[in-house]
Amino acid sequence: MSHEIDQEAEKTQRGEGPTRTDRIGKVFVVVGQEMRQCLICECVFTRRASCDHSTVPCMPVIAMRK
Ligand SMILES: [Zn+2]
């Protein structure tokens, strides 16, 4: 259990400049070596897929559990 918060998506958001208002700042948890889990929908993605996922809206899992 050595999960660490991956804030790469957040850094990308800051580095993009003010024109990228459609960028959603998401936080991913590193799972294993190459997998990352979205803290919003709890889906697991590869590094590349998580990068793509950070640019699209997703449904918070809490809303579905209710
Ligand atoms: Zn998600």
Give a verbal description of the structure.
This protein has 3 helices and 4 strands; from the N terminus they run βαβββαα. It is an alpha+beta fold. A hairpin with a 3-residue loop joins strand 2 and strand 3. It is globular. The N and C termini lie far apart (27 Å). Zinc ion binds next to loops.
Count the E strands. 4
Helix/strand-derived category reads alpha+beta
Give the number of helices. Answer: 3
Q: Number of folding domains?
A: 1
Largest beta-sheet details: 4 strands, antiparallel
Strands side by side in the biggest sheet: 1-2-3-4
Proportion of residues in extended strands? 15-25%
Report, as a whole number of angstroms, the end-to-end distance: 27 Å
Average pLDDT? 75
Parts with pLDDT < 50 across at least 5 consecutive residues: 15-21
Bound molecules: zinc ion
> Level of helix content?
25-40%
SSE pattern: EHEEEHH
- Kindly provide the radius of gyration, computed on alpha-carbon positions and rounded to a whole number of angstroms: 12 Å
General form: globular
